[in-house]
Amino acid sequence: MRSFLYPLAAISLVGFTVSALVHIYSSFGWSFWESDPTAVLHIGAMITFVPIVIITVTSMQEVPQDGIWKQLLRGLPPWIRYVGYLLFVYAAVNFLLRQFLFGGNAVNDSNLFSSGWLISYGVSAAVYLSLAKTKTVVRRCINGHVVATDQSNCPECGNEVLNDA
Ligand SMILES: [Zn+2]
What burial class does residue 80 get, using C-beta atoms within 10 Å of its C-beta: 0-12 exposed, 13-18 middle, 19+ buried? Predict the structure, then answer.
């Protein structure tokens, strides 16, 4: 798995950049969707996201719900999560503004989809870069208990966390 992290991160970053370009162009009313080389971005966004779902399902059962993203992104600075929230808020505001202020015509498929791709590729890139930096998917003490990202010692046995990058 580890050797796939950098290629997946690279694909996600390329997808993010191309999606940003499509989003900027489509903001001015140009839709690429019908002619359609950008469907590749749609498929790419799904392919890069699937391993994250698998990692979460297979490795995060013992992690509390609100700790999953913190564990997945703990190899990166904490502010990276706020960039993610911003992308979500932007996608929602962009859609609502175009839908209700400017009428349905201002929403074209390329514009709508690309705001979603930005979130998908952005999250994927962040998770793969983070996992490449941390030695384990989930932070654990030497006895194997899950330890939250804001705790320095295990709440269960008091032991420290080893090998946490
Ligand atoms: Zn422990």
Answer: middle
How close is the Cα of 68 to the center of ligand 1, in Å? Answer: 18
Least confident of 26-35, 61-70, 96-105: 26-35
- Split into its structural domains, the chain has a count of 2
Query: Does 127 share its domain with 161?
Result: no
- In the reported structure, the alpha carbon of residue 74 is separated from the centroid of ligand 1 by a whole-number distance in angstroms of 19
Span from the CA of 54 to the centroid of ligand 1 (angstroms): 25
Q: Are residues 41 and 76 in the same domain?
A: yes
pLDDT above 70 (res 18): yes
Ligand 1 centroid, distance to 151 Cα (angstroms) = 11
In the reported structure, the alpha carbon of residue 146 is separated from the centroid of ligand 1 by a whole-number distance in angstroms of 7
- Assess whether 56 and 127 both reside in one domain: yes
> Ligand 1 centre from 161 Cα, in Å?
8
**Span from the CA of 59 to the centroid of ligand 1 (angstroms):** 17
> pLDDT confidence of 25, banded at 50, 70, 90?
confident
Tokens for 87?
């992308």
| Global confidence as pTM | 0.88
